[in-house]
Amino acid sequence: MPAVIQNASRAARPPAAVSVEQVTATYREDGRVLTALAGISLTLAPGEFVAVIGPSGSGKSTLLDLISGLVEPDAGEIRLGGTALPASARLGRCAYMHQRDLLLPWRTVVENAAIGLEVLGVARREAIEKAAARLRDVGLEGFANAYPAQLSGGMRQRVAFLRTILPGLPVLLLDEPFGALDALTRAELQEWLLELWERERQAVLLVTHDVDEAILLADRVLVFSPRPGRIADEARIELPRPRRRAIVTDPAFVAYKAAILADLEGVR
Fold this sequence. Notes:
alpha/beta; Rossmann fold; 37% helix; globular
């Protein structure tokens, strides 16, 4: 291929949804300065689903805090949509969901789901109308006026997901969103997330401790080393999509799991 055509092809590619370039982050604990991440570099393409897995304390959640703009790195650069931005400018550019649902107990399901839109300046009535129109998508039709205390853990997580996706931001940061759920509810919500992502196709960066979850959901799995966190290995998951839970017994799935478990054992 002529060089000019190659260059034109490269120029036509959309910028990465997220680019983390040689980022180092430290924090203080008991008077000591500890390094959470050391020289981390990674990219997340538009519409790509990437999972991060590694030992506790390896800086996985810190990575999400950095990308979201809650924390500024000590060194390195973070780009969103190809543009390098300081922490203050990254705030509000990514949707961020923590392990806890963080629902407001005095707000109904639909009112909780509408919060993300309200924060972005959408009028309360319009935000609630938009949230109500999506309740069926997340299996909450008929629960619009229920309060969080009246919901199961899985239903609360569905509300939190709806709140996260409604603003339509191009990047979703998910920090162990199913970590506190029982196995059956977790499996159900994993399949629901897959179906949702297949429709929405936002870029997703998921932190998890569950190897099966990482393989089931992701296009790539990044294995982090113990603190200070570094990317010790990367597995590209070439399983066909759409995926469903039954794929966990497929020999290829089992082989990916064995390889990632070996990686995790190797970085301990």
